[in-house]
Amino acid sequence: MSISLNSIPVITVPGIGRIDVKEIKSKYDAWFEAQPVPFQIFFAGFQSAAQGAAMGYFLGSVNPAGTSAPGVKGAPAKPLSPIAQATNMAVLMGVNSSASVAIKKARNGKDDVYTSMGASFLSGVAYSLVSGAPDPVNAALSSGVGFAAFNGLFYQFGNMFGKGNSQPDTDYVKAKILLSSLGLAKYVSNIKKGLLDDKTIMLWNESALKEARIPAGPRLLILHHLDQYRSPSSILKPALPVPMLHTSFAAPATSQALVAHP
Length: 262
Description:
Blueprint: E1 10-13, E2 17-20, H1 21-33, H2 37-62, E3 66-67, E4 78-79, H3 82-106, H4 113-131, H5 136-162, H6 173-181, H7 188-193, H8 206-211, H9 216-230, H10 250-260
Antiparallel strand pairs: 1-2, 3-4
Helix pairs in contact: 2-3, 3-4, 4-5, 5-6
């Protein structure tokens, strides 16, 4: 599930008193695991889709963004209405959560990089289809591969850097690794304030990062990095052969000839 409240074990509500959030979460998780698998898949997707719709509508209302069709490099940007933003994020987050539960159950409870990549692939395909890409089949496949590669990579990094941390901030693991790899770790707090968690990372765009008060230079670096995964065709290519290095003195002679005869 997407609930991660380990960082706030106890809260105080005026008129009610102290509430043990960890205990409530523990009881909720126990109840959830006791439900039939089809219900778990449906409820996980429904809950995350509702969260994604609310977040998308809010972001679209605050500052509508211009985004390119997913998986299509160079596609013209078009403004998205709050409803379109809400729909995109609801589908992305809902499919991801449902697929995560379904794949985990099918693999006898294994929650590893393959489960993460499988769910990310399906959510990438669904997001591309609902976004209305010009070439839906190719865009869906490339988006799915890009989402899976991105999440698989950051899942592995998260496991490497998360060891020894008894209370990891699981909602922003990928975001932290991304920013750290670009030398922009000081903007993690901006990302958190903007609620740009790991589930929204493939939807980050100019307006969302600007709303989080991240300067133009870092915004360009972040978006350039993410675009490599949004358009995986730019990275899923056969490696070019390394050019041979020739130790020859012909080049200087040619240069002299060009200088002598402009």
